[in-house]
Design brief:
2 copies of one chain form a homodimer.
Chain A lengths: L1 E3 L2 H10 L4 E6 L5 H13 L2 E6 L19 H10 L4 E3 L3 H4 L6 E5 L7 H4 L3 H16 L3 E5 L3 H13 L5 E5 L19 H4 L4 H14 L5 H12 L5 E9 L14 E9 L2 E9 L1
Parallel strand pairs in A: 1-4, 2-3, 2-6, 3-4, 6-7
Antiparallel strand pairs in A: 8-9, 9-10
């Protein structure tokens, strides 16, 4: 397995890999969610490249960039086991040299939900993913449904800018109790861990209400909020029942609905979602 | 010669063309300047694609988008004579469908000179050129030195976003009296035409001063302004002696200097430039 730190070297290795090439961009500290993306990429492509890059520009000033968990050695071991062809793990100044001054933005949908709570977050995401796609030149790129809005935004960028990449979104992988896999779960203290299941429980409640015929989005939001508030450690950033394309909040659910939420469990901010319909 | 109006068709044709592929993006109404780019592209590549697209997003509200000169038939005839392989001439809604909401921006250098006079102009340019590069997939793309800042901005976008295109900048082509070739020259009324040469004359004055040893940038700007003001019809937007990479105005010329200006001759806004050093 090639472990690559520079852009020119990545471009050279890329030329030698059998096509089609699948690409899994990550921030490392890999868990089963990432591995499920790698396996899907292996299934569908002749070669697989994984990037590990904790992208500073998608973190806000008060966010967890500095303490974001890292484990390059463990990650490389896991990817080696999966038969990945190349790992692209650049330093920040390789991606953002001193005079770097460009940006790629999707407007509109990036102002909502996560974008509303984390201004500039998606500009950081689209800019780095645009660069990674250009550097790696994949045929397909794999993202997790756990970051639903991220997948929607990247799909929009690819479509709007006519990038030659198929974006594949893969199901959320969960712990046995429903907690969505996330590198940030490592922040959860033992006393937070049980409370953290409230995200999934509230999504299941939404799903149950929907299955029982409830189509009023506000009722679903209210019931979710009520449940989450029973957890003392939980602080809600948002609870949303929205159109899966425009991310506009719905009144009445007619077609599909993206039910998503961001909740702080003590100091750890978690997100999760399901699609109804 | 293929004349192509849709993105999928362009992508199909692209696959059939021998590589390397040279690309000349234009807004049509072709003149000898454009043709010089096409010939350079022919020299250096196995195939040549030219786009003709008057990009609405790079025009300001009070600018000349509506009346920008167009001559598709004449253009196609010229390109056929030059042995171009494909002309990509989409309608605006092919490039910008109704829900289009992405943008590509270079910051910093786009706030100066043309960017200062034409807010949003370069965002329109970088976004459309980014799309065209992704659609056409060229190995090399050709731009004229007449739009010096545009060439600098596109180079910066390509470098920052790691796009796999070589940007080639070709010399300005001029009329016998020095007027830089431009589609907008068609706006010049006979009584403006002689006045319009003041742009080139002021650049030659700058060049002469430099050759005589003048290194004070402000002296050069002042002498250029003095000359331009002898033309009654001329109204100066800017006269600049700047660093060719950062576009910061210079005090003392040490290395190279980009001398550029924008002047309105009655109602026609013209730009031109030379490099000193």
């Amino acid at each position: 397995m090639n472990i690559i730190e520079t852009i020119p070297q990545m471009q050279e290795v890329r030329k030698t890999l059998p096509e089609p090439v699948g690409f899994v961009p990550t921030m490392g500290y890999l868990h089963e969610g990432h591995i499920s993306l790698v396996r899907k990429a292996k299934e569908e492509n002749a070669s697989v490249i994984v990037s590990i890059f904790v992208n500073p520009t998608q973190f806000g000033h008060n966010e967890d960039f500095e303490k974001y968990p890292r484990d390059m050695e463990g990650d490389i071991e896991l990817l080696e086991e999966e038969g990945v062809d190349a790992v692209f793990a650049p330093e920040a100044d390789e991606i953002y040299p001193k005079d770097f001054s460009s940006r790629v933005e999707v407007i509109g949908i990036t102002q909502k939900l996560e974008g509303n709570c984390r201004p500039g977050h998606f500009r950081g995401v689209t800019t780095v993913v645009n660069k990674l796609f250009n550097i790696v030149g994949p045929d397909r790129a794999y993202f997790g449904q756990k970051d639903a809005q991220q997948a929607i935004v990247i799909n929009k960028m690819v479509k709007d800018l006519n990038m030659n990449v198929d974006v594949v979104t893969c199901p959320t992988i969960r712990e046995e109790d429903g907690l969505a896999m996330s590198s940030r779960n490592v922040y959860l203290k033992p006393e937070d861990r049980q409370s953290a299941t409230v995200l999934y429980r509230s999504l299941m409640l939404a799903n149950d209400l929907y299955e029982q015929g409830e189509r009023n989005a506000e009722t679903i939001r209210e019931e979710m909020v009520r449940l989450i508030k029973t957890e003392e450690l939980a602080r809600i950033d948002y609870v949303s029942v929205a159109d899966p394309l425009t991310l506009d909040e719905l009144n009445e659910i007619q077609g599909k609905a993206l039910v998503s939420l961001a909740v702080k469990i003590y100091k750890t901010r978690l997100i999760d979602n399901v699609i109804l319909g």
